C-alpha cells in the first residue's frame, strides 16, 4: 500500500527565514503529488501539484516544490516565510483508481 | 476554480440525536465525493467514498449504519450522523473529485453533548 511520510511534526521558523517541509512517499510508480495547507478550523487549500513534466513546480503564496524521483520526495519550499503562513501543511499522493493518501501533516509556527 | 461548500460549519447536538451535514459542489458537477474525519492535530481519515446514484463505499472500521451517506445529485452529498454520541464529536470535511484533483469543503465542526 502506498504511504506518505512527513518526518517533521512541528517546525518553527522566524519570519523572513526560508522554509522546507519534507514529504516522502512509497509507491512503485510516480503518483500525482499535492501539497495542501490548512488553517485552524478550516478546510484544505491546494498550494501546488505535480503531475508530470518540470520537476520544480510553482504554487500559490510564493510556495514551490521539487519532485525528486530518486528520493521519492516532494519537498515544499518557500524562500521567505510570512507570519500568515503559520498553519498545518499536508502532503498527499494519488494514483488513478485509488484513494488520495495524506501524510500526517507538519505544523508550521512562525516567530515574529 | 472549483468551489465546495459545507453546511453547517458548526453544529452542536444532544447525544442520541441525528445530524445532517451537506456538501455541495457550487460550480461543477461531481460524480464522486469523499467524506473525511479529522481529529485534533491529526491528518484526514477517509470515511467513505460517495458516488452519485449508487451506494457509498465505506472504509474499514466505519459504521455505515451510523454514518449514512446519500449522493442524490451531481452537486450534493449528505452525511448523516445517526444517534450521535460524544465520541462522534469531530471535524468532518468533504471533498469532490474532478479528474485527478480533489477540492475540499471548509469543514463542519460537530460537537455532541
Commentary on this structure:
The complex is a heterodimer of chains A (112) and B (113). Chain A has 112 residues and is mainly beta. Chain A has strands at residues 3-5, 10-14, 19-21, 24-26, 32-38, 44-50, 56-58, 64-68, 73-78, 87-94, 101-102, 106-111. In chain A, the strands form three sheets. In chain A, strands 2, 5, 6, 10, 11 and 12 form a six-stranded mixed β-sheet that branches. A four-stranded antiparallel β-sheet of chain A has the order 3-9-8-7, with no helix packed on it. In chain A, a hairpin with a 5-residue loop joins strand 5 (32-38) and strand 6. Chain A is globular, with a radius of gyration of 13 Å. The relative contact order of chain A is 0.34. The model of chain A has no long low-confidence stretch (mean pLDDT 93). Chain B is mostly beta strands and 113 residues long. In chain B, 0% of the residues lie in helices and 56% in strands. Chain B has strands spanning 4-7, 10-13, 19-25, 32-38, 44-51, 57-58, 67-73, 76-81, 90-98, 101-104, 108-112. In chain B, strands 2, 4, 5, 6, 9, 10 and 11 form a seven-stranded mixed β-sheet that branches. A four-stranded antiparallel β-sheet of chain B has the order 1-3-8-7, with no helix packed on it. In chain B, a hairpin with a 2-residue loop joins strand 9 and strand 10. Chain B is globular, with a radius of gyration of 13 Å. The model of chain B has no long low-confidence stretch (mean pLDDT 93). The chains are: A mainly beta (112), B mainly beta (113). At the A-B interface, strand 5 and strand 6 of A face strand 5, strand 9 and strand 10 of B.
Amino acid at each position: 500500500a502506498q504511504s506518505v511520510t512527513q518526518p517533521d511534526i512541528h517546525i518553527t521558523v522566524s519570519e523572513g527565514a526560508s522554509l522546507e517541509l519534507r514529504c516522502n512517499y512509497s509507491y512503485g510508480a510516480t503518483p500525482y503529488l499535492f501539497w495542501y495547507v490548512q488553517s485552524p478550523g478550516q478546510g484544505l487549500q491546494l498550494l501546488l501539484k505535480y503531475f508530470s513534466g518540470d520537476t520544480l513546480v510553482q504554487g500559490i503564496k510564493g510556495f514551490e516544490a521539487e519532485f525528486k524521483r530518486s528520493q521519492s520526495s516532494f519537498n515544499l519550499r518557500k524562500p521567505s516565510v510570512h507570519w500568515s503562513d503559520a498553519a498545518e501543511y499536508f502532503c498527499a499522493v494519488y494514483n488513478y483508481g485509488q484513494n488520495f493518501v495524506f501524510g500526517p501533516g507538519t505544523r508550521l509556527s512562525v516567530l515574529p | 476554480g472549483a468551489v465546495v461548500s459545507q453546511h453547517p460549519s458548526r453544529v452542536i447536538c444532544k447525544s442520541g440525536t441525528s445530524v445532517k451535514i451537506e456538501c455541495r459542489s457550487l460550480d461543477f458537477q461531481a460524480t464522486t465525493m469523499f467524506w473525511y474525519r479529522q481529529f485534533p492535530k491529526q491528518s484526514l481519515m477517509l470515511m467513505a467514498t460517495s458516488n452519485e446514484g449508487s451506494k457509498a463505499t465505506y472504509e474499514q472500521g466505519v459504521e455505515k449504519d451510523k454514518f449514512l451517506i446519500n449522493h442524490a445529485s451531481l452537486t450534493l452529498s449528505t452525511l448523516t450522523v445517526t444517534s450521535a454520541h460524544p465520541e462522534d464529536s469531530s471535524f468532518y470535511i468533504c471533498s469532490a473529485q474532478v479528474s485527478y484533483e480533489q477540492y475540499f469543503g471548509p469543514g463542519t465542526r460537530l460537537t455532541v453533548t
